[in-house]
Each structure stands twice: as C-alpha cells, then as structure tokens.
Amino acid sequence: MTTAADIMSSGPHWIPATESLDRAAQLMRELDVGALPVSDPTDPHERMCGIITDRDITIHCVAAGHDPSHVTAGDLCRGTPRWISTDADIDDVLQEMESHQIRRLPVVDENKRLVGMISEADVAQQLSDDQIAQFVERVYA
C-alpha cells in the first residue's frame, strides 16, 4: 500500500502568519514552490493555521489592489486548512484533494505536526494515465 508518507515532499518550509506577502512570494521563488504552510503565531513551526499559494497572493492581494508589503500571510488564511496523515493511503489522498478541489495537501504526523506536502506532481507519479485524467477532471472541474 502506497501511503502519503511515501509520496510527499518532506521538510516543508513555513512562513509565519505575521510575515508580509511580498516576503512570502520571494520565499516561494527561492524554494521553487507554489504554496507555503502558514504557522500559527501562538505556536510557530508546530501548528498550521493555513496555507497560502502564489495564486492567493496574485488574486486576493495584487489584483485586488493591495500592497503585498502591507498584507500578511495570516490575512490570506481562510477557513480550516485541509491535511492528511502520513499513514493515509493514496486513495484517501486522492479523495481529499478531489473532494476539496485542492492541488497541494499538507501531511501531518501522529502528533499533528506538519512533516510534508503532496502536490499534483507527487500524485501523478503514482497514477496511470487514465487515473491522472480522472484526477485532473475532478480537481479542476
């Protein structure tokens, strides 16, 4: 059985909720990632309060006319972040990503600490061409 721990990219980089979005964008560029987990200011690097994407910065900040140097990562966090446990199997990963139409999924250990991220590319490496087509159709529908 393939688990979330088997396919995730480990060692995700955090950004504090109090950090500006221009710094978040710079960090995304440096790390060549499209999303960053946002740490809860009361428990940095232990508890995730959200996740921001490059698209969030573009659509909800820049395109809305806001200055990314004056908007924080925490300002963009909305709702409860989705996540999956390290021992979840690939079917559970697919179900979570498809049902919530998300492209990146944080992975947490038994202590609820963030240990990795699963992207579309990570998932695609595990699927047949037909399964990839179905996944894309469901996530992007």
UniProtKB/TrEMBL annotation:
Superkingdom of source: Bacteria
Keyword Membrane among record annotations: no
Residue intervals of the CBS domain: 8-69, 76-134
Keywords: CBS domain
PROSITE patterns registered for this protein in UniProt: CBS
InterPro entries with a match to the protein in the record: CBS_dom (IPR000644), CBS_dom_sf (IPR046342), Diverse_CBS-Domain (IPR051257)
Name the record gives this protein: CBS domain-containing protein
Organism this protein belongs to: Streptomyces boncukensis
Lineage, uppermost ranks: Bacteria, Bacillati, Actinomycetota, Actinomycetes, Kitasatosporales
